[in-house]
């Protein structure tokens, strides 16, 4: 279901890359007794700081300790020249993630010194550190870098919750990812029934990048899909015959149009830029070579985002809990801006965001996702971006109106990915994953999208388009090429 009709350009973006070894572990939920990758590593979850400890021969997460707020810690003597005033405005919590503005920086507050560094898994976090020595010999010299807020593109700490009146251009997506991760981690552990099929040539490639977020996305959708069961097929462009045979074997009667559905035909046009969800319960990806994956941060980001994207389609199409409509029927399809946009968003939240410096990739990838719409219409690349920059609710509404139909042949879906992903960011940041689940369940019963949207969120779809217009403009402004 992913990008079946898109041209080569977009498939290019949707192809991917990666990092092998620690990914599976990195994406596993942090729970007492769960395996962890490295002794001494700390991770915060649900208000606790967990430490990776050795138990017998295994490395597991300990029971965790409540995270203390730095502002409540015991005061320590401070060098008098430290710029406390600025640092104290920032609420640092040990183990919590720190924004990109603070990466590598040490901040000194009245309670101690804190460094923002990578946790070697997926995020930058605050750690306690030594208070920097201040040179006092001749003239006092400040040893600290000025905290970011002032020097880094105006990013300031989030001081009030994200709402339609406060769609912060930096924090909205970050908050949405955080909510998704916390919701996923809070679900009871699922038993995931998966069968992974590796082609002869894929074993030499970084296929685990296409499995990023696998457990997390299954846990996220646990309330709507309790007993997940699927096949994941990973192959390369050198395995045409193998992948066709595998598809024939696993798809059975769902294989209706071989020249459209079989990967050998798709790869003739698009090379290794293919993948997707196929009935009855198959997710498959062509895994790019290391060289292809290394060509751009987008290539890697796209690969990392792939699994949660397709799993979201799988859940929507085949879970008997999310919808009363027949499995695989068209009545299950939400408007394509949400169908593809939410899948893309979850791909970012649980896959792409495992990349270092993912915010830059997120913006760059969103930008690339808007280009096929322009190209298809022989418009100058960047036309959509400039339209968003106008901050005009009428333009945004008309773009979304084009995307209210169902995904399928004949519908121009190119804009659904970028616009829908940003719209979903807002929905999640404002209403939480709980809100999204309510929407899906309501729609799954009524089959009426606009009615469900209003019933669950209390605003009309049209008002929603209007309210997100400034946010879309703020993101388009930051798009990088
Ligand atoms: Zn898709």
Structural class: alpha+beta
Q: Report the sheet-strand fraction.
A: 5-15%
Form type: globular
**Quaternary state of the chains:** single chain
The main β sheet shows up as:
4 strands, antiparallel
Low-confidence stretches: 1-28, 68-89, 132-151
Please provide the ordered H/E string of secondary-structure elements.
HHEEEEHEEEHEHEHHHEEHHHHHHHHH
Strands, total number: 11
The CATH architecture of the domain at 8-20 and 169-476 can be given as: Orthogonal Bundle
H/I helix tally: 17
Entry summary:
With 481 residues, this protein is of the alpha+beta class. It has helices at 8-14, 23-27, 84-87, 171-186, 214-220, 240-251, 258-261, 263-270, 290-293, 297-318, 336-350, 358-376, 383-389, 393-401, 414-446, 449-457, 461-478, and strands spanning 42-45, 48-55, 58-61, 65-66, 106-109, 112-118, 124-129, 193-198, 229-235, 275-278, 282-286. It binds zinc ion.
Describe the 3D structure:
- The chain is built from 17 helices and 11 strands.
- The chain is an alpha+beta fold.
- The chain has a domain at 8-20 and 169-476: Neutral Protease, domain 2, CATH 1.10.390.
- The strands form 3 sheets. Strands 1, 2, 3 and 4 form a 4-stranded antiparallel β-sheet that branches. Strands 8-9-11-10 form a 4-stranded mixed β-sheet, sandwiched between helices.
- Strand 6 and strand 7 form a beta hairpin.
- Helix 4 (171-186) crosses helix 15, helix 5 (214-220) runs parallel beside helix 10 (297-318) and helix 12 packs across helix 15.
- Mean pLDDT is 82; it is low at 1-28, 68-89 and 132-151.
- The structure holds zinc ion.
- The site of zinc ion has 6 residues, from helix 10 and helix 11.
